[in-house]
DNA sequence: CCTACCGATCGGTAGG
DNA sequence: CCTACCGATCGGTAGG
């Protein structure tokens, strides 16, 4: 075992930075948006959960929607960063796809509170904010599709339709936000490992069947 | 071509039955719940969309939550019926799994308005209603898991973990409700066919590799 | 199935 | 960052 892999305990999640009171309000809003939804959450509930008066919300944020936007943008950026870092961590399409799906699914489990707001509260954004979020989502989608296409090009993957396969790969991770429970039997890492295996099956990758020998290095663990 | 398969045009979806005014209210509620969510929908919006006065909602329904429950229960029952009918339509685990995922994904695309309420508005139900819905969901889950386990038993499927594989198979269909757009490039049938192929990959089914020759009958199309 | 209305709560602001 | 308050809207009901 190396010193910094595998069985390390749950790392501290990166939370909202900057002014602590502002961060407490964002945390309170995140918790409530995640379980009750944006429209099921009042600004008074957010304030109360942060231990402040109802009006304190408007000291730090102009509107309730702007709070949602901050949370959604940060969350989308985190998810995108996870995918880009996974791609950078490996050299071949099979290695990259495995890392993407493992880390994307793990992120949706570990950060399921945030991920639920990210994936299921987009309809409450203003059109302008929705456009900014949509750009981040396209970036993530295109990054995954690029790896799928590269794997097909190299003969690593056997895929009938790259578009529906890309959607399916993303769906596996995204839907984790819906069903994952912190008190359930599965750790985020376990979900990630299982889903990474399933991802390689989805793209028809059988180790040793590709044209490129250097795949094996990225598959060894 | 046989007379009643394949290219038949979109069939008329089964809608709410019984009293027409009541059905109009349920349709109006469904449309609004689907795009704005339960908490983002007022009873006045429902009434207006049905062409009635605000109080008319309470002629046919006791509370707003009861409207959601009716829609959610009917929708969950439809989805369960789709899965059970798919199982009945085939004799072998590979045939059954293909039919399940094809029809489950097709249903989530064709009925994406209803499916969004079914999959994403459960948190707004009363605890009693949530329990009834949970039983329908367990029934669906267990039916799919049974086919996965039967396929493993027969040697048709090679699966590392039946539980996470079952969750993944259901996730593929459920997440269709989130991303499917009626004005997009894909027909519900196309989504279903693509996803059925992916499902057999997920369970490690390679035609001809199983111990049972009669699989081929269910795979021929 | 309608008009008219109930108390409660909403997002947001004035003023300090 | 608080108290106090604004008009608007909410789910639901009385009475016909």
Global Rg of chain A: 19 Å
Q: Write down the secondary-structure element order of chain A.
A: HHHHHHHHHH
The top-level CATH class of the largest domain in chain A is Mainly Alpha
User: Regarding quaternary structure, how should these chains be classified?
Assistant: homodimer
Largest sheet of chain A: none
Q: Name the largest protein-protein interface in this structure.
A: A-B, 32 and 32 residues
Percentage beta strand of chain A:
under 5%
How far apart are the first and last residues' alpha carbons of chain A, in Å?
A: 11 Å
Query: Architecture of the largest domain in chain A, CATH level 2?
Result: Orthogonal Bundle
Given helix and strand content, the structural type of chain A is: mainly alpha
What is the CATH topology classification name of the largest domain in chain A?
A: Tetracycline Repressor, domain 2
Protein name (chains A, B): DNA-binding transcriptional regulator, AcrR family
DNA-binding region (chains A, B): 42-61
Keywords (chains A, B): DNA-binding
Domain HTH tetR-type (chains A, B): 19-79
């Amino acid at each position: 075992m190396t010193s910094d892999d595998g069985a390390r305990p749950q790392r501290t999640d990166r939370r909202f930075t900057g002014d602590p009171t502002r961060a407490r309000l964002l945390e309170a809003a995140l918790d409530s948006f995640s379980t009750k939804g944006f429209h099921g959450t009042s600004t008074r509930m957010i304030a109360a959960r942060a231990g402040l008066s109802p009006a304190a919300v408007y000291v730090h944020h102009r509107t309730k929607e702007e709070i949602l936007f901050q949370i959604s943008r940060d969350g989308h950026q985190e998810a995108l960063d996870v995918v880009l870092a996974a791609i950078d961590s490996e050299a071949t399409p099979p290695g990259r796809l495995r890392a993407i799906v493992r880390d994307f699914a793990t992120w949706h489990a570990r950060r399921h509170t945030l991920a639920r707001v990210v994936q299921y509260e987009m309809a409450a954004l203003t059109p302008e904010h929705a456009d900014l979020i949509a750009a981040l989502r396209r970036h993530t989608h295109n990054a995954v599709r690029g790896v799928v296409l590269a794997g097909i090009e190299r003969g690593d993957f056997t895929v009938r339709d790259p578009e529906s396969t890309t959607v399916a790969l993303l769906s596996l991770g995204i839907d984790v936000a819906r069903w994952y429970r912190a008190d359930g039997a599965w750790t985020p890492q376990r979900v990630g490992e299982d889903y990474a295996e399933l991802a390689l099956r989805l793209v028809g990758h059988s180790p040793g069947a590709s044209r490129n020998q250097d795949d094996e290095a990225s598959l060894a663990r």
